[in-house]
Amino acid sequence: MSGSGVSREPALAGQTVVVIGGTSGIGLETARQARSEGANVVLTGRDSERLARAVRELGALGSSAAFDATDFERLERFFDELPPVDHVMITAGGPYYTRLADMDFALARRNVDQEFWMPLYVARHAVGKVRAGGTLLLLGGVGGRRPSASPLVAALTAAMPALTRTLALELAPVRVNLIAPGFVDTPLSASLLGAQLDARREHLRATLPIRRVVGPADIAMLALHLMINTAITGVTYDIDGGQQLVEG
User: Fold this and answer.
1) For residue 3, what pLDDT is reported?
2) CATH says 16-237 is which class?
3) N or C: which end of the chain has fewer CB within 10 A?
4) How far is CA 190 from CA 70, 172, 195, 207, 219, in A?
5) What is the reported pLDDT for 1?
């Protein structure tokens, strides 16, 4: 008899995955895992050198482009130039943590552009571009559910599940889902925490039920599942290693 191993076809063979913000962290790891499952990938990112490195590493398609996704005219041109695709995931942007008393409203408006308006623009451009049964994957978070959260983070955290449900109906048969991580050990987290990063990691290792820190690969595995499982739409998936259970 030959070996007992059972081979399988890559789950995303022949499909195209677009990752907006795909040059580092969660976006890059999702693109990497999508490639391992046979997908073609298209990446965007603001930094042209970092984009070039990611494109070379993954063999991404030539329609990958460097631009700021909150430049909505440029975002529209990007989608206009895309061929039909199967999945779009948004990982660009990041939270703006501050008390109301300390809020820089210019930075706050830019954060709303990144976290709220940009997904809406992407959703509009996904119509007629993402194939039926494909996915629009949004990225939110769980930190804003605590009363002590930054007011802007709290507002956006509350808005995204409602937006996801509404878009799942309006964009059907394209599926729309939201991934809501807690702390994820990414370059963005490092830039936000600075010298406090190691202490945060140690605290999470000691207190999370999973006894380890959540990483980009954990989020990417969930993203691929949501691309592959065509029965899922309109759902928010928390992925925080149990952080909400121990941090209120």
Assistant:
1) 52
2) alpha beta
3) N
4) 23, 37, 8, 20, 17
5) 43
Give CA–CA dist 166/247, Å, rounded: 30
Contact 243, 184 (CB under 8 A): no
Angle, helices 118-126 vs 72-81, to 10°: value is 20
Rounded Cα distance between 133 and 175, Å, is 6
- Confidence grade of residue 61 (pLDDT, cut at 50, 70, 90): very high
Residue 196 has pLDDT above 50, yes or no: yes
Paired tokens of 129: 């571009």
Residue 53 one-letter amino acid: R
Pairing of strands 16-20, 40-45: parallel
Paired strand residues for 44: 20, 65
H helical segments located in the chain: 25-36, 48-58, 72-81, 105-112, 118-126, 151-170, 187-193, 197-207, 216-228, 243-246
- Name residue 136's beta-bridge partners: 88, 176
Query: What would the mean pLDDT of 198-214 be, rounded to a whole number?
Result: 94
